[in-house]
Design a protein that fits this description.
Helix content of chain B: 55-70%
Radius of gyration of chain A: 27 Å
Helix content of chain A: 55-70%
Order of helices and strands of chain B: HHHHHH
Number of domains of chain A: 4
Largest sheet of chain A: 6 strands, antiparallel
Distance between the termini of chain A: 58 Å
Strand content of chain B: under 5%
Strand content of chain A: 5-15%
Oligomer: heterodimer
Largest interface: A-B, 59 and 51 residues
Number of strands of chain A: 12
CATH architecture of the largest domain in chain B: Orthogonal Bundle
Number of domains of chain B: 3
Radius of gyration of chain B: 32 Å
Number of helices of chain A: 20
CATH topology of the largest domain in chain B: Helicase, Ruva Protein, domain 3
Shape of chain A: globular
CATH class of the largest domain in chain B: Mainly Alpha
Number of strands of chain B: 0
Shape of chain B: rod-shaped
Number of helices of chain B: 6
Chain lengths: 672, 171
């Protein structure tokens, strides 16, 4: 199977190279209208077919690797290092992306999948799709070259074959890890598509904004995958790492967040191009930057450029990535300089206070946030280069710099939709903003009344201050968004005589993009409320003998047993804790500690009881070597569930925005 | 006069707010528990887990217990926050501090984000203002041109096009 996989990868590289060269030649012939022995259209079609065949070849290689994992073929180094016989089936499957070679193969395969779909739908615009397909082929050539020459997944193990493999990293043996990396990679790789269309449209001097319309769905789906990937990663960190948090500003987390920020900026500013023909250069560079940041993210994760808690696979492929990024940047700059005259705006902003300028400021803040994170991530390298010593740029830096920017962005989320296009009158501002501002200040007063003070025991508390501001702005933003729904639904209700809820449904169906976007914003607000809850986290730690008690918040944990278990994959020890609330037993929790046999590495399995107001989060930290009694750490983390609920709302909103809007009856009739 | 009074009122409001914030910031940490918590979140665990000392609790950590004890000892011995952080940095290297300091090259880490944000904000405002002025100028010129060329025949023609097409036909 190793030989089959290696051969499939070589074939895939040859096909991608043909796709690139034949595609580029055909497009050149079409652009210059030079006479040629072969019809350029036919040549372009052979390139397209080579792309489809290349997808089949990459699929064969990925299948060969998965097959080898399930067949326990430890003659392949990658399988030996990332799997073992007792590994459960789902995790054997996830071994595909648990190491560097496998995850690069996943990149190439997902790129193949996206390319396959793109090439099958080429009839929408044959020439533009040919450009995009050729650019995708160039990217595929890079990844397949790395897989064939720098990080081969089918490299054979040298020396005597071991009976069993080293096993999968225990941190990765968790259900989210079966979904999180593919989801994240679907997001990373997916941004290749809008990038390819943008670069292709620029190269061919594509008239109008049709390429934006073609790529809109691609971009939104990609953005959705990336969003889900990031949140699944957060949930994994929360449930597995056992420190009670979900975001540590780790370089790898940052690497996934940066393209999300620029991608979000692109999704907003692209509306300006569609509606007003503005910000054309800006949009092109936003999508170029997003693609480059996805490459940077892969570089950071895979090349060990910066130290990270979960850079699971590190090696020397950094030079390949840096070279590729330089080439991509050079091509982007060259094409832009050559074609920039075609990117002049059709209109200009007319007022500082308008929907257009709110989009501009939204972009400014998103890009500043991206810069802050990039700066913080790379500053240790810069510091080492300039003054010769490394520094840590951790959570305190981001909390001081990035959180205020995030809160400002949240504020703009509420302000933007209330501003009309072109210009705003003072009367309109007063009409739209009075209620949200009142709600904002009422929230401040209520928060202060219930004890959310920006100081604690006479000391300024940054966390509480941010939480107070976040709650207040969230309330204002939510009011602003809901008032948009109420206003629109009221008009429809009066026009059609339908009840209010039906009117909201009709309103959303008529402009799914706008109201889907508002639902996404509601999701963001819910997430922010959940994040703000972290300011009130508390924890207690104690050694617990039989019937010992641990009190946290309204809960009393009583140890009723500590036991051990084992299976082929790991040995475990866990405590059984009865949880009482108001003197009444409510449920039992069993935090666990595992030691995986193949890797001999320990791992906590956190027990979490989640209700809307908080999570009770219990960690089995181990046993006291002197007494043999378990050490339990319990956290009470307020509002964490809101983060995951907010994600659901956000996903729903994005799906709504992806549904085509329904034209009003009069217009439909007119079209018939 | 009214606008001056309004301006004075807002200025006083801003001053009061600034004073309140300054008071909040100027209040120092008072008890050992909050100092331990605060400093624990300004230091890193040195075992390589990349977690803050105050949050490191992973199984088998060989460093965080000792570091926490050193932090407690430092607070108990009456050292200031600055002295404790300096002692940790001297013993474990600058990477034990969870964020860059505000001295030397480290200061650049703090300044750059705000400088970039400020410059970008200013640039955007100036750009939007320029565009707005330019749009206003163009609109005025178009209006003037339209008024000058609006002889009765053109007006009639424009009205006819507007009625029939719903637009002014590019006038």
């Amino acid at each position: 199977m190793a030989a089959f996989g290696s051969f499939a990868l070589l074939i895939a590289l040859a096909l991608a190279a043909y796709n690139l060269l034949a595609g580029a030649l055909a497009l050149r012939l079409i652009a210059t209208r030079q006479p040629a022995r072969i019809s350029p259209e036919r040549l372009a079609d052979t390139a397209r077919r080579a792309g489809i065949a290349g997808f089949v070849a990459v699929t064969a290689a990925a299948f060969a690797l998965v097959w080898s994992v399930f067949a326990n073929d430890f003659s392949i180094t990658y399988i030996m290092e990332h799997s073992n016989r007792a590994l459960p089936g789902a995790y054997k499957f996830s071994a595909l992306w648990s190491g560097q070679e496998g995850s690069l193969l996943l990149w190439a395969w997902l790129l193949g999948v996206y390319g396959f779909v793109l090439r099958l739908t080429h009839k929408k615009d044959v020439t533009l799709y040919a450009y995009a397909g050729t650019i995708l082929a160039a990217i595929q050539v890079f990844f397949l070259a790395v897989l064939n020459f720098a990080a081969p997944p089918f490299a054979l193990y040298r020396g005597a074959l071991p009976d069993d493999g080293n096993g999968l990293n225990p941190l990765l043996q968790y259900p989210e890890m079966v979904i999180h990396p593919p989801m994240l990679y679907l997001g990373y790789v997916g941004f290749c598509i809008p990038f390819a269309f943008a670069l292709g449209a620029l190269m061919m001097n594509y008239p109008g904004e049709k390429w934006i319309k073609i790529t809109r769905a691609w971009t939104m789906v990609t953005w959705l995958f990336l969003t889900c990937g990031i949140f699944l990663g957060m949930h994994w960190a929360y449930a597995v790492l056992g420190w009670g948090g979900y975001w540590g500003w780790d370089p790898v987390e940052n690497a996934s967040f940066m393209p999300w920020l620029t991608g979000t900026a692109f999704l907003h500013s692209v509306m300006m191009q569609e509606k007003k023909g503005m910000m054309k250069s800006w949009n092109v560079w936003l999508i170029f930057s997003t693609f480059l940041l996805t490459l940077l993210g892969t570089l950071l994760t895979r090349a060990g450029l910066v130290s990270s808690v979960h850079a699971f696979a590190q090696s020397s492929i950094g030079n390949w990535f840096v070279t590729f990024m330089v080439i991509v940047l050079a091509v982007c700059i060259f094409t832009y300089v050559l074609q920039r005259k075609n990117l002049k705006s059709d209109h200009q902003l007319e007022s500082l206070v308008s929907r257009e300028s709110s989009f501009l400021f939204n972009n400014l803040v998103l890009l500043t946030a991206c810069f802050v994170i990039l700066w913080g991530t790379l500053f240790p390298i810069l510091s080492e280069y300039v003054v010769g010593s490394k520094v840590t740029v951790g959570a305190p830096f981001y909390n001081r710099v990035a959180v205020p920017i995030g809160l400002f962005l949240l504020f703009l989320t509420g302000v933007g939709p209330l501003l009309p296009w072109r210009a705003t009158s003072f009367k309109s501002i007063r009409r739209n903003f009075v209620l949200p501002v009142i709600v904002l200040w009422v929230t401040v007063i209520v928060c202060l009344a219930v004890g959310v003070w920006p100081w604690k025991a006479g000391v300024f508390d940054q966390g509480n201050f941010y939480a107070l501001v976040a709650f207040a702005i969230s309330a204002g933003v939510l009011t602003a968004i809901l008032s948009e729904f109420v206003r629109g639904a009221g008009v429809i209700s009066r026009q059609t005589g339908r009840n209010f809820f039906v009117a909201i449904w009709l309103l959303t169906r008529r402009n799914t993009r706008r109201y889907g976007g508002y639902i996404v914003h509601i999701g963001v607000v819910v997430i922010v409320v959940g994040l703000a809850g972290s300011a009130f986290n508390r924890n207690v730690e104690s050694e617990m003998g039989l019937h010992d008690k641990l009190v946290i918040g309204p809960y009393t944990l009583v140890q009723v047993g500590a036991t051990q278990d084992s299976n082929l994959n790991y040995n475990s020890e866990y405590a059984m804790l009865d949880v009482y609330e108001h003197g009444k037993k409510q449920f039992q929790m069993t935090p666990e500690r595992r030691v995986y046999l193949a890797s001999e590495q320990p791992q906590t399995m956190v027990a979490i009881h989640s209700v809307p107001s908080w999570d009770l989060y219990v960690v089995y930290e181990g046993t006291n070597p002197d007494t043999g009694q378990p050490i339990i750490k319990a956290f009470l983390n307020p509002l964490v569930g809101w983060i995951w609920a907010g994600l659901m709302v956000l996903v729903f909103g994005t799906l709504v925005a992806l549904v085509p809007s329904q034209k009003p009856a009069a217009q439909r009739g007119g079209n018939q | 006069m009214k606008s001056f009074r309004s301006f004075t009122f807002w200025m006083k409001g801003v001053q009061a707010l600034a004073l309140a914030v300054a008071v909040c910031f100027s209040l120092g940490a008072s008890d050992a528990g909050s100092r331990f918590n605060d400093l624990g979140h300004r230091l890193m665990c040195t075992c390589g887990c990349a977690q803050l000392l105050g949050e490191c609790n992973h199984v088998g950590c060989t460093e965080s217990g000792r570091e926490r004890q050193e932090l407690k000892d430092g607070i108990a011995s009456g050292k200031s926050d600055k002295e404790i952080l300096a002692a940790f940095a001297a013993k474990y290297g600058a990477t034990v501090l969870a964020a860059p300091t505000t001295q030397g090259f480290d200061l650049v880490a703090w300044i750059a984000p705000f400088a970039v944000f400020g410059a970008a904000l200013l640039g955007t405002i100036l750009l939007v203002r320029r565009w707005a002025l330019s749009s206003a100028g163009k609109a005025q010129a178009a209006k003037d041109g339209e008024a000058a060329s609006d002889d009765p025949e053109t007006k009639t023609l424009r009205e006819k096009i507007r009625r029939e097409t719903g637009s002014d036909g590019g006038f």
